[in-house]
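Practice problem: NAD(P)-binding protein
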Amino acid sequence: MPNINDVKCILIIGSTSGLGRGLALSILDLPSKPTVIVSGRRQERLDELTSSHGADGRLRAVKPIKLDVTADRVTLKATIDDIIKTYPDLDAVMFSSGVQYGSDFCKPETINLDDFFVEIHTNYTSVVTMITFFLPHLISLGESGRPTFLYTISSGVGITPGPSVANYSATKAAIHSLSISLNVQLKEKNVHVVEILPPLVESELHDGQGTAETLSKYWMPLTEFTKLTMAELSTDAAQIPIGMAAHAYEKYEAGKLEAADKFYELQKVTFNK
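Answer key — structure tokens:
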């Protein structure tokens, strides 16, 4: 299976902080020298990212694009169409944007349903929307003989839920399930779906909840996560569980992708009768 070293031009959605930023800079340093399109909703973050990493000459390969994944469907479609028009060599998209809110259902009056649905949209439905809009281009390249890639980022809590972040866990379980189905369906189109399953990782994601100080005693440093993930991205792995997420994966998920593949083949035979 082709891997990250075969990528020529990658868009990383949500690359101005956290996991996305770490992976964007590491991909930029690959010997294959891919073009890396960084995106986020905050222009000042994009400016900081591109300016602070241009002194060593890497800026030539960094292309910033302002993209808000919570935008309406028409705006997202127009933005994605512009990206594809500007970068016709785009052969990989990584989805790293995400938000996380705590929820205590023992105190239902404290549940903020606005945050609840923003979390669902940011972490899941916007990803489905964007994948749908990118796929015609990626399938076309794939069918021409050039491998293309979708990189999804779920989480260990998508396997073993974190009860205090119940909705976040549910969105990551949805991404995990979707990634398996897309992997099975799209392999015939030369579109390779790779799912990254992080453990608890050092991230600004936890700042808004006021839990960063406590979680910092347990989380995996971002540099370590990035190093481990990049090593796996250079293999033919379709699922990349890291750290504690790997333990949950081996216990509950190992073999599920292969089982889904067999089920899909059975479905095709049944439906074609």
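Discussion: The first strand starts at residue 9 and ends at 13. Students who identified this feature from the tokens alone can consider the problem solved.
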